[in-house]
């Protein structure tokens, strides 16, 4: 099997995290070129290759030239949110399969556009939500849908991070570029994973935001009701103490409690009559790129297609509308 010739679009901190994982998969992956206009970000990225004893790939900061000049199979897009739609559309139309960082797009209209482009080009588009792509969340979903754990009662989720100060002065707090604040950025993982686990549509959501003196939401609380009548509670705190970033999701059913995280970082189960939680065995994973390649090879169905990005955009829009009306419940259509 030939390594997948890949372009990395965007070389910021998150990209460097992914590149480190990709370099562990050189039998399946060849990073052929990167696309990064910032010399500072490029230098930090090149250092990763040099530390691994490799020559850094060439950089072509113009994505149109890159797509014309380099023979490629796939692209991993890891840029500020506002660029996701146009860059993904260009890569799909150039015949590439795409793994796209979350949140997929800025709004539902952009999501619908990418779904149309994917269908027209017949290329693969996977949204890089590590929760949806993790064996832990996929296993939890299968356990919940199998019915052995009983009817869903409630879901409780929280995510926290020293995000406000950590992103101060960056594009992440600039709404025209970021599309939102902590809930739309790190909190997007929570929104997406909770909907995966719920396995059904929201009937309504009610939310309140605190911007903590910034242009974007830093703290958010959300109360939701699913179509089945089950309740969902979500809490995002982007003003947590220094050096913290973590999450917890608890799913309560008639016969059990499941514990996991928004990134799929754990999975534990306690059933009726048991005194403590036990870990649920799942296959090991090297992260979203490994799972993308498994989808691309047809080994697993796509757990995170662009429809998931559309779902998350619609949910965030309803949450934002509720927060703008002091927590007024907002009904939702199909997600």
Structure report:
It contains 12 helices and 14 strands. Helix 5 links the parallel strand 4 (97-101) and strand 5 (125-128). The strands form 2 sheets. Strands 13-12-11-10-6-9-8-7-14 form a 9-stranded mixed sheet. A 5-stranded parallel sheet has the order 2-1-3-4-5, sandwiched between helices. The chain is α/β, with parallel strands linked by helices. The two termini are 38 Å apart. It has 2 domains: 4-128, 3-Layer(aba) Sandwich (Rossmann fold); 131-285 and 303-331, Dihydrodipicolinate Reductase, domain 2 (2-Layer Sandwich), CATH 3.30.360.
What are the key terms here?
335 residues, alpha/beta, Rossmann fold, Dihydrodipicolinate Reductase, domain 2, five-stranded parallel sheet
